[in-house]
Design brief:
Chain lengths: 450, 450
C-alpha cells in the first residue's frame, strides 16, 4: 500500500469524478473544486439533454471501480448500428461491429451525477461553485473563489487539472517556458435540436441506432434518450453558404431543413423554438505538452486533449486516462514524479491519435456514409473480419471495441488497412464480385502485409 | 486624406516603432505603451549584442518612411555569403545571391533606438515601463500599469498589439470564441557566445559573411558587429545527447567545443564566462487567427506570427506587415473594418509560409550546408539562374531579395523547384558534368514546368 496523499482535483466533471473515485479507493484524501453549482440540486440546463456514446474503453475504466454494470443497466441505450437517412427519407444501415456489439447512448448529466454520488460515498469532498483563481505549479497549492468572492487556499500534495477544454490549470502552465499548446477551432459548429417521444411514449425512429443524415460537408445526427426522445445535433459550417451565418432567419433554416432533412423535420414540432434558443456552439481541438509539471501537477481528460465529438471518444479517452494512470500507480508506488512522467509519455501519442481519428471520422460520417463505394468497402472488411477475426479488425472496432489496442496503434494500423483496401476497391467490377472467393484470397494475401 | 484617429500601440519594439512612424505620417495621433524601460537611457543588457539580418523586405518597409539609407549607412554590415567551417577548420563558401546582393547584420538594440528617436520626431508619444493589465477588445481601450502600480486608462479608436511573441493583447484575444492559436516550442534552444575583435581592432573572421559551423543536428553561427566582434549563437537541442542538459558543466562544454568547433573556440577568450552567464533560451513558433477583432484591435509582427530565426526573416516579416498595412490603407481609407479584414486575410498565409520556411532553413543550415550534394545543387541553380534570370530564381533569393514575391508564393514555388532539382541531382555522374550543356538543356526543359 502506498502512502496516503492529499490530492486536489480541479473539476467535478466526468473525468474529475472518476479520477477521484480511483484515487480515494487507493486511500488518498481527495478534494474536488468545481466551478459550477451542484447539478444534482439545480437542473440548470432546463432538462436539455446532451448525450454521449459510451464504449469499451470507457466501460473498462468504469468496470475497474465497479460501476460498469450499474451504468449500463440504469442509463444506457445500446446502439448497434448506424442508420443513414437520405434526402428522400430512404434508409440504409451499417452495423458498428459484430453481432451484439454496440456503443451506448448515455446522458452526460445523468452519468456525471451518478459518479459524483459514488465519489462522495468514497469520502471525496466536492466543493461546488468554486473557481480556480490562483495556481502555484511548484507547490500544487491553489486558491479557489466562491460566488461571494470568498477565497479558499488549498494546499495538497498533488493537483490534477480535470477542468476541461478551457482548463484554468492548463492556462497557468501555458505561460511556462517550453509548454507547447494549440487550440484549433474547426470551421464547423453545432446546434442541438430535439425529436420528442411519440404520442404513446414511443420512439419515432429506430431506437437502438445512431441516426445520420449525411450531406457531404455537413450532417445531422440523432441519439436516443431513455424517455424515447432523440437528441439531434446539426454539425454545420459556421460561415459560408450554407452555414449558421447564412441561415440567419428561422424561416430560412426551416426551408433548408425541408429540403435536406425532411423526414427529421417532420418529427421536430419544436424546431422553430429550438433553432432560435439553442446556441450555435463552436468545436475546438486542444493539444498540449507536457501534461505534468515537476511531479506535482497533472492535466487529465479534455484539459490535456480536447477533441471533436465525431468518434464518440472524448469521454472514453478521458476515462482511459484514469485507467492508465491507475495501472501506472501499481508500477510506480510512491514515486509520483516517475508516475507523472510515465503517464504523459504513454498517453500523449494516444491523445494525439484520437484527435486525428475524430476528425477523420467526421469526414466519414458526413460524407462517406452516403457513398456506395465506402459502404461496400466496409461490407468487404466486415465480412472478411468475421471469417478471419485474427487477421483483420476494422479500424472502427479497433478504436471502439478493442481497449487492449492503443489509439495510436489503431490509427497506424488503420492507415495500413486503408492503403490495402484501396487495392481491393480498385479491382474491376468489385461491386459485382465483392463476395467472391477471388476477393477473399486477395484479401488474405494482402492482409499478410499488415 | 483620411480622418485622423487616436491610435494606441502596445509595444515599442522594432515593429511597434515602425508602425507608429507609418501611422503618424498619415496624420494619426499615436501613443505607444512599452513594458520595458527606455533602452536609450538604461543599457540593460550590459552591451550584450543581439544582431539580426535585415534584408530586402525590411529595407523596402524602411524605405517607404525614408529610413533605409540611414540604417544601411549607420549600422549595417553587409554579408555577401555563407562561410561554412568544418571540424578541421576548413572553409567552404556559398554566395547568398547574385554579385553584390547581401543580407545585413544590424544590432537589434541600435536599430530599435534609431526608430524610437524617429517615431518621437514624428510626434509619437512613447510611455515606457507601462505593462498592459486590462484590454477591452470591443472598445480598443486598455489599462497600462507602471512599475509603481499606477494605472493609466487609455481610450483610443484603435489598438495594435505589437507586443511580441508573448503578446498581452493576443492573450486576451485567445480567450475569445473561435480564436485559433498555437505555441510550439522546438526541441532546440540557443545560447549566445562572443568572438571579440582582434588585438588591433580587426575582425578575426571574414567580416562580410555569415559564418556557419554546420554539424548535422545542431550548429553554431556568427554575425559581424561594427566593433569588429562577432556575436555567435549555438543552436542546440535542449535535451538528449548532446544537449544543453548533457553539457552540464563548463568543462564538458569546453571539451565539446574543442572537438566540434575548435577554430571558433580558439577565438573565444570569454567562453567559460559566456557559457555560464548566458541563458539557454528556448525557441517558439506562434500561430494564431484571426489577427484582428471587430475592426478595433489588430495584432502585428511577432504577436501574430513569431517564427524561429533561421531564415533571418522575423524582423523583415514584421516590417513587411507594416508595409502591407500601409498599402491597404491607401485602398480602404476610413473603412478600418475593411482594412483590418483585408490585412489579416492577405498576411496570414504569408506568416504561415515564413514560419515553415524558417524551419526548413534550419535543416538546411545545420545539416545540408555541410553536404556536397546540397552545395552542388545550389551551384547548379545559381549558375542557371544567372544565365536565365527570368526562368529561375532560387528559393533563398525569392524569400530574401524579392519582396515583390509573397512568402506564400515563394514557398509554393520552392517546393516545385525542389521536385525538379531532385530529377537533376538524380542524373548519373552529376558531380562530373554539372556544368555541361546537357544539364543546362535539361534544366531549361524542366523549368517550363514551374
Amino acid at each position: 500500500m502506498s502512502e496516503s496523499k492529499q490530492i486536489t482535483i480541479a473539476g467535478a466533471g466526468l473525468v474529475g469524478s472518476l479520477l477521484s473515485i480511483y484515487l480515494s479507493k487507493r486511500g488518498h484524501q481527495v478534494s474536488i473544486y468545481e466551478r459550477r453549482p451542484d447539478a444534482r440540486k439545480n437542473l440548470l440546463d432546463g432538462g436539455r439533454s446532451i448525450n454521449l456514446a459510451l464504449s469499451d474503453r470507457g466501460l473498462q475504466a468504469l468496470a475497474k471501480v465497479g460501476l460498469e454494470e450499474r451504468v449500463l443497466k440504469e442509463m444506457a441505450i445500446p446502439m448497434y448500428r448506424r442508420v443513414m437517412h437520405d434526402r428522400a427519407g430512404n434508409l440504409s444501415y451499417q452495423p458498428y461491429g459484430k453481432e451484439g456489439q454496440a456503443i451506448n447512448s448515455v446522458s452526460r448529466a445523468g452519468l456525471n451525477m451518478l459518479m459524483m454520488d459514488e465519489a462522495e460515498k468514497h469520502g471525496v469532498q466536492i466543493h461546488f461553485s468554486h473557481a480556480a483563481s490562483e495556481i502555484d505549479l511548484d507547490s500544487a497549492a491553489a486558491v479557489f473563489k466562491n460566488e461571494e468572492g470568498q477565497s479558499k487556499e488549498v494546499k495538497g500534495d498533488f493537483l490534477f487539472g480535470a477542468d476541461g477544454a478551457f482548463s484554468a490549470v492548463r492556462s497557468v502552465m501555458q505561460k511556462t517556458d517550453r509548454f507547447s499548446y494549440s487550440q484549433e477551432y474547426i470551421e464547423h459548429g453545432y446546434k442541438e435540436l430535439e425529436i420528442p417521444a411519440g404520442p404513446n411514449g414511443e420512439f419515432l425512429l429506430e431506437k437502438n441506432a445512431l441516426h445520420i443524415w449525411p450531406r457531404g460537408s455537413y450532417m445531422l445526427i440523432a441519439l436516443p434518450n431513455p424517455d424515447a426522445s432523440f437528441t439531434c445535433t446539426l454539425f454545420f459550417p459556421m460561415d459560408g453558404d450554407p452555414s449558421f451565418a447564412s441561415l440567419d432567419t428561422t424561416a430560412k433554416a426551416r426551408a433548408f431543413f425541408e429540403k435536406e432533412f425532411g423526414d427529421a423535420l417532420n418529427l421536430m414540432p419544436n424546431f422553430d423554438k429550438d433553432w432560435e434558443e439553442n446556441p450555435d456552439s463552436s468545436l475546438v481541438i486542444i493539444r498540449c505538452y507536457p501534461w505534468t509539471r515537476k511531479g506535482k501537477v497533472a492535466l487529465i481528460g479534455d484539459a490535456s486533449h480536447a477533441i471533436v465529438p465525431f468518434y464518440g471518444q472524448g469521454m472514453n479517452a478521458g476515462f482511459e486516462d484514469c485507467f492508465v494512470l491507475d495501472r501506472l500507480m501499481d508500477e510506480y508506488g510512491d514515486d509520483w514524479s516517475g508516475l507523472f512522467e510515465a503517464y504523459e509519455k504513454e498517453r500523449k501519442p494516444d491523445g494525439d491519435a484520437i484527435a486525428d481519428l475524430a476528425m477523420r471520422n467526421f469526414v466519414e460520417m458526413r460524407d462517406l456514409t452516403g457513398d456506395a463505394d465506402f459502404l461496400l468497402q466496409k461490407k468487404i472488411e466486415g465480412r472478411f473480419s468475421e471469417k478471419y477475426p485474427d487477421k483483420w479488425t476494422p479500424l472502427y472496432s479497433l478504436v471502439t471495441f478493442s481497449p487492449e489496442v492503443r489509439y495510436s496503434e489503431a490509427l497506424a494500423l488503420g492507415k495500413r488497412q486503408d492503403a490495402l483496401m484501396a487495392e481491393i476497391m480498385a479491382l474491376p467490377n468489385i461491386h459485382q464480385f465483392w463476395d467472391s472467393e477471388e476477393v477473399e484470397q486477395k484479401m488474405l494475401a494482402l492482409a499478410e502485409r499488415l
